[in-house]
Design goal:
Structural class: alpha+beta
Helix content: 10-25%
Radius of gyration: 25 Å
Length: 562
């Protein structure tokens, strides 16, 4: 049951960074900055070290942030990349007079303000790490016997919704033998909407293949890899691989998160992933671990608000049958993230700080790599600390911010890559809600989290959705009315401890919107009122009802993590 939680967490959490293209609107010729090494390619993430954006900032990106993401005369006159040309000269505004939505002085001979050019000149090589070879290099992909497998979506229309998860299923290149995937490299067709990709595996063919909106129950037996904006590729340690093939993963599903905040109606996308694999198996399989806090409630207009989660020793003793080796770690928050750290404790004392972000930026997360790896033992404690700010700038909020999947919501998680993978676990989750752990002991009465019995809660909600009176008595579609009959049907739900306190608020925000119940719950929260006429009721189709029951049962199990 816990595997369902972890898989759904990795769906959302691997998207740890995004470079929004509308930052390019704030600088002259922002969409026309050429790649300094590749003719006819545009460097879309002008403020980042990687062409697509995201990840670490180059010096121009740092100066742009310091200027409040505004094109100011001072920023224009700087020479961020120290190549003896001002930022304004490089971007076609030599007189520093350009303003957004105005005509720029020059649209030709544009050069990169964050990369010293010519890139491979002795001077530029002496002052910057970027070269025309790029920052990503995986020598293992050039070893004898290494094969390639391309997995790309066909050109697919992008919905106007801000957030869309789209999936596609591919057969593995060979299921008659066992292989190790050793590297993954993205192909990004539409950087305007690509947020992140997650690569999953399963042993049996899913019911849906071809591009389709993702649900929660298809081809997620194992997490193979993840990619986010700013990452040029994923290269595994030379003794680690991701297993697939005979008696293992036979189908691969790529899930892409499209982010379309401007609701553009003419986008398409054909992005995907290239997998490098070998029949020469490595010593270890790679695994994934997630730790963090779901109970977030960040007040508006504050300078600092800190939350913490603790993956306690009894949880690591339960989840880890043996010591694991940590190779990569990173924090994941959204726009309000200000700072944070991830700590490994042993025998009551701090053993190692795995990540320490004094200044956290959503668009440029820091991934901490360890070679040699850091050992984590059963009984160790993993602490995740996140500090948020909601006072000014892009972080300013006028209302309370809660945990959620959208970029305007917040998260507080540690993402960990490790080996050897714990058998029969797609990934490991050690998640808290307030002080309640994700590894509660099950008893004969069900899975208990605080005063909430999630087993009983699952039964109550499933029975309610299966009651035909629910669809006829409740204002399922409109959410404006809660007649006495509907209130009576939902009385058991309201009496459940899972609907009370902070956990109840969380369920209202996160659970019910997924299953089209949020309007009914909101109406009944306000009190009893009658339909103006019987025609106001809306019946659910049997197909939709069955889908809701299945999905809700799964999601409640996800929250129980037991």
């Amino acid at each position: 049951m816990k595997s369902l939680v972890v898989v759904c967490l990795w769906v959302t959490l691997l998207g740890a960074a995004v470079a929004y293209p509308y930052y390019a609107d704030g600088i002259p010729n922002g969409y026309k900055v050429p790649h300094p090494c590749k003719q006819n390619d545009m460097w879309k993430g002008v403020g980042h070290l990687t062409m697509g954006g995201g990840g670490r900032n180059n010096q121009f990106g740092k100066d742009f942030k310091a200027a409040g993401y505004q094109w100011t005369p001072a920023l224009c006159r700087m020479d961020s990349d120290r190549d003896n040309r001002t930022n304004g000269e490089e971007l076609g505004d030599p007189n520093c007079v350009w303003k957004p939505n105005h005509v720029v002085d020059r649209i030709v001979n544009i050069t990169h303000p964050g990369v010293c050019e010519p890139v491979d000149s002795p001077y530029c090589r002496s002052i910057q790490e970027y070269t025309c070879d790029g920052l990503y290099k995986c020598n293992a992909t050039e070893e004898p016997g290494v094969m390639e497998y391309d997995m790309r979506f066909p050109h697919t229309p992008v919905p106007t919704a801000e957030t869309t998860y789209i999936c596609n299923v591919f057969e593995v290149p060979d299921d008659t033998a066992t292989f190790h995937a050793i590297a993954f490299e993205p192909f990004i067709n539409n950087s305007n909407i690509m947020h992140h990709m997650t690569v999953f595996g399963c042993s049996t063919k899913p019911k849906q293949v071809g591009p389709h909106l993702c649900d929660m129950v298809t081809c997620r037996e194992s997490v193979l890899a993840g990619w986010t904006v700013g990452v040029e590729g994923v290269c595994l340690p030379d003794n680690v691989g991701v297993r697939f093939g005979k008696d293992s993963i036979k189908y691969i599903m790529i899930e892409m998160h499209w982010n379309n905040p401007r609701n553009v109606d003419h986008y398409t996308d054909s992005s995907g992933m290239k997998m490098f694999y070998t029949s020469k198996l490595r010593k270890y399989d790679e695994g994934f671990l997630t730790a963090g806090q779901l109970d977030l409630e960040i007040p508006p207009g504050i300078e600092s608000h800190t939350v913490q989660s603790t993956c306690q020793s009894r949880c690591t003793e339960r989840e880890l049958p043996y010591p694991i080796n940590i190779t990569k770690v990173n924090l994941h928050m959204h726009y309000l993230g200000k700072s944070g750290r991830i700590e490994l404790h042993r025998n009551g004392t701090l053993y190692k700080t795995l990540a320490d972000d004094e200044y956290y930026f959503y668009e440029s997360p820091v991934i901490y790599s360890y070679d040699p790896p850091v050992e984590m033992r059963p009984g160790d404690v993993l602490k995740t600390v996140c500090t948020f700010k909601s006072k000014d700038g892009i972080r300013k909020r006028n209302t309370t911010t809660y945990f959620g999947l959208g970029t305007q919501d917040e998260m507080c998680f540690a993402l960990v890559n490790y080996y050897p993978k714990v058998p029969n676990k797609p990934a490991i989750a050690c998640i808290q809600f307030s002080d309640y752990d994700s590894c509660p002991k099950n008893n004969e009465n069900g899975t208990i989290v605080g005063n909430c019995n999630y087993t009983s809660f699952t039964s109550s909600v499933t029975n309610m959705l299966g009651n035909t009176s629910f669809s006829t008595s409740c204002d399922v579609k409109g959410g404006k009315y809660c007649p006495a009959e509907c209130k009576n049907i939902m009385s058991n739900l309201y009496a459940d401890n899972c609907m009370k306190g902070r956990l109840g608020k969380y369920n209202r925000r996160m659970l019910f919107p997924l299953f089209k119940m949020d309007k009914v719950v909101a109406a009944c929260d306000l009190g009893v009122s009658e339909f103006p006429s019987t025609s106001g009721s809306t019946a659910l189709t049997q197909t939709l009802l069955a889908t809701l029951i299945t999905s809700l049962t799964l999601c409640v199990r996800m929250l129980s993590i037991g």
